[in-house]
Amino acid sequence: MAKRVQCELCPNGCVLELGQHSKCRARMNKDGTLYSLVYGKPCAVHVDPIEKKPFFHFLPGTTAFSIATAGCVLSCKFCQNWQISQAKPEDTDTYDLPPEKVVSNAIAYKCRSVTYTYTEPTVFYEYMYDTAVIAKKQGIRNTMHSCGYINEKPLRTLSKFMDAADIDLKGFTEDFYSRICSGSLRPVLNSLVILKEEGVWLEITNLVIPTLNDDLNNVREMSRWIVKNLGADVPIHFSRFFPHYKLTNLPPTPIETLEGARKTAMDAGLKFVYIGNILHEGENTFCPKCKKVLIERMGYFVKQNYVANGKCKFCSSAVAGVWS
Amino acid sequence: MLRMANASSAVQLLQGFGVRKENRMKRRDFLRIFLLGGLFSLFGKKARAEKKPEKPLKEAMFWKRLD
Questions:
Q1: Given the DSSP bridges, would you call strands A15-16 and A5-7 parallel, antiparallel or unpaired?
Q2: What pLDDT was estimated at residue B1?
Q3: Measured between beta carbons, which residues in chain B are less than 8 angstroms from residue A129?
Q4: Which of A137, A200, A202, A309 sits at a 20 to 30 Å CA gap from A160?
Q5: In this predicted model, which residue has the larger pLDDT, A122 or B7?
Q6: Which of residues 237-276 of A touch B (CB under 8 A)?
Q7: In chain B, what residues touch A3 (CB-CB under 8 Å)?
Q8: Rg from Cα positions in chain B
Q9: Is the pLDDT of residue B2 over 80?
Q10: Interface membership of A8 toward B (CB under 8 Å)
Q11: Do A33 and B59 touch (CB under 8 A)?
């Protein structure tokens, strides 16, 4: 008897023979049952400013208890965390941290949220889900930074407990996703729409890589798609690329390229467009109506916050986000 | 010169603790104890690892059998 199983968590849809591991390295067919190999075993545990995720419109100035396990559903050539995302669980040093301990630690460290981040949280779905359920019961918010490469059913199930998601929209062509990330664009766009429908606060990150996804026509097309399908209030972060993993031959993204992307996205109608991974005026939040600086940031830190009860302190217009 | 100075100050330090020159440990003895300590530590770790019960794996939430 073959005892093959198929994972239905992400679009990879791995079919596994007995003893085989999934593409993400975090799942295994053992005796005809699919098991998670990373449940309760994070390889990264940190208390971070929520701005590091990055979330700029979700409880600014608070800290997030952040966890990750080994593995990823994609294999991006530019991965900034490849040492853990492309590693097997058994090759990483792990902590013994069951879901209830994650939540009690988050409370002990005065974190307002637990963030599932660094690698791809989809690979530790069961761990994330169980933690999110406990956290929600105890008044701790749940957020994730994900590539959005997940099937509809698991994403809708998770969304009931997820307060915010920052999704990496790594490019806007199928060619980029297949050549550089070993994935495809369509499932990521579907996930963005699902998260919006489920009422999860959404922010988008786009790592701008010189020569690969820095074409302003693509940025324009992507921005228009966001405005049309998700709304103009969804914040987007254009992050600066630094040479990593298999893309060490490329230079860091020039500042002018990031500024060009920001202008293009704003011209396309997006109200909150940020520049990340670099100290720049584009880290600040501006009121879309009166144009004054609403939240002044320096790196991951909030210097001034003029959003009160979700409104601009100067002109009283509503600012999209989760502020309390 | 620096090594000489350090060696001499180490001798002074030992003498300060009342250790006589003839009672000082020879290199061979030091290596023997060092290696024995290392071996004991390794065996201890192995024994602890064997004692630790392996946690049962968590069944995945979204999957299906094909056969």
A1: antiparallel
A2: 47
A3: 61
A4: A309
A5: A122
A6: none
A7: 65, 67
A8: 26
A9: no
A10: yes
A11: yes
Please answer whether residues A75 and A182 qualify as being in contact, where contact means their C-beta atoms are separated by less than 8 angstroms.
Answer: yes
Question: How does DSSP assign A160-222, residue by residue?
Answer: TT--EEEEE---SSHHHHHHHSSS-HHHHHHHHHHHHHTT-EEEEEEEE-TTTT--HHHHHHH
Phi/psi at A269 (nearest 5 deg)? Answer: 115, -5
pTM, two decimals, is: 0.86
User: Contact A5/B55, CB-based, under 8 Å?
Assistant: no
B17 touches chain A (CB under 8 A): no
What are the contacts of A242-251 at 24+ separation with CB within 8 A? Answer: A242/A80, A242/A277, A244/A78, A244/A79, A244/A80, A244/A82, A245/A76, A245/A77, A245/A78, A245/A79, A245/A80, A245/A82, A245/A86, A246/A77, A246/A78, A247/A77, A247/A78, A247/A209, A250/A209, A250/A210, A250/A211, A250/A212, A251/A210
| Cβ pair B62:A32 closer than 8 A | no
* Shortest alpha-carbon distance between residue A125 and chain B (Å): 8
pLDDT in tens, B22-63: 677 788 888 999 999 999 999 988 887 776 667 789 999 999
CB-CB under 8 Å, B59 with A129: no
Which residue in A15, A36, A151 is closest to B66 by CB distance? A15
* Res. A30: pLDDT tops 90: yes
Backbone angles phi, psi at A239, to 5 degrees: -95, 145
Q: Which residue has the tokens 């005065």?
A: A110
Q: N- to C-terminal Cα distance for chain B?
A: 77
